[in-house]
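Running co-folding for flavin mononucleotide.
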Amino acid sequence: MRKQLHVNLFEMNCVSHIVHGLWVHPENNRHRFNDLDYWTELAQLLEYGTFDGVFLADVIGTYDQFRDGPETALREGMQIPSNDPLLVIPAMAAVTRNLGFGATFSTTYEPPFAFARRMSTLDHLTKGRVGWNIVTSYLPNAARNFGHDTEVVHDHRYEIADEYLDVLYKLWEGSWDDDAVIQDRERRVYTDPSKVRYIDHVGEHFKVAGPHLCQPSRQRTPVLFQAT
Ligand SMILES: Cc1cc2nc3c(=O)[nH]c(=O)nc-3n(C[C@H](O)[C@H](O)[C@H](O)COP(=O)(O)O)c2cc1C
């Protein structure tokens, strides 16, 4: 059996992800990350090179522990400025056919209902080519951006993540039947209401009624992964 090689680009929607300092190279064009063209050109290049996917890392705070402030990160462009990873995916999907997209999103600070909808939307728009890098966020500054005084402790973050996933599975897998959307013009029925359910989740951290707002996407639940 011949082994198959899978190739993935590890990226971030910012000027400097993990190759800090490279942006000063005269031929580096990372400062274009605010332009959609940068991402569509990158996606086409990756597909031309038969890459399996591009994985977009993300943090929702800045690195401000070193020398007690964000100055070093800001000066050196280390993951700041940085933009939202989810929003460049549809543009990359529009110019490719096979490239997969992994996006990072944290389970700790934003409740699951809106994220479930965003991921389903991405799964529709990419025709099933999206995955989610599940993170719980390690930056103390991230906690302070979302109403906490200090970092949510490690094990508690993972307890929240467990319940977050429960809610998502209920929304993605349990709320709509495959054949709920019938688009029957004559009877004027878009969706058969008997095939869509509330999820009525009541847990320790979340209370979510549903139903999910999106009809089932190709994957329903996107590819789930964690980088450890
Ligand atoms: C390759 C790789 C990529 C990662 N990408 C992110 C990321 O984009 N955002 C993030 O908050 N954490 C990221 N992490 C951190 C992990 O989610 C995780 O927090 C870390 O591996 C430590 O595990 P722990 O959370 O169980 O302590 C990454 C880790 C690795 C190894």
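Result summary
The chain is about 30% helix and 15% strand.
The CA atoms of residues 83 and 212 lie 27 Å apart.
Job closed.
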